[in-house]
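Notes on consecutive records. When two proteins share a document, each keeps its own sequence and its own token line. Never mix them. Below: protein one.
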Amino acid sequence: MRFEIVGKNIAVTPAMRTKIEEKLSALDKYLLIDENTIARVLARVYPNSQKVEVTIPSRVGILRAEVVNNDFYAAVDLAHLLIQILWKKKIQFLLRQRR
């Protein structure tokens, strides 16, 4: 999976980029995402919080997560909840194939 990381009102540092790629690279082991998939990550800074939006197109549909937190790295940690969404979609996909 490739990553497209964009920052709004913030400059994306190499440490931020590394953290995002490290967390989201765990999604590669699932069948619904291939190596040509582009994960779009948008980091925004608001006066009181920071927001991370992750959008990943897959064969089943678009996987999307939005997390708002005071700390950017905590928001990235919570954004990896896409694994749970992906697992649910994978089960639905496999059940549809059985029918």
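Protein two starts on the next line and is unrelated to protein one.
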Amino acid sequence: MPKVSVLMAVYKTPEAYLRAAIESILAQTYNDFEFLILDDCPEDDREKIVNSVQEILDDSEKYNKMSNAINPYGDGKASIYIEKIILDYFLNQN
């Protein structure tokens, strides 16, 4: 049984944000966790996105490349960038 459960709720999340969020979670150095994605609007392409990420998990070379990538937000200001992206997303919903 994993020590940590990571729960991500999604609702009509743009593909780029969903991919980035999933890949960010999977690239963590701590790996004793389960990752659950709760989808509240399954009519879009989320299943395709999740399945494509599964391909990365199944291919150790691709996974190692992703997990060893340098985090561009490794400057300790990730929350500021995340806040900016979320704010931008909601302000441009028109």
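For the record: The radius of gyration is 14 Å.
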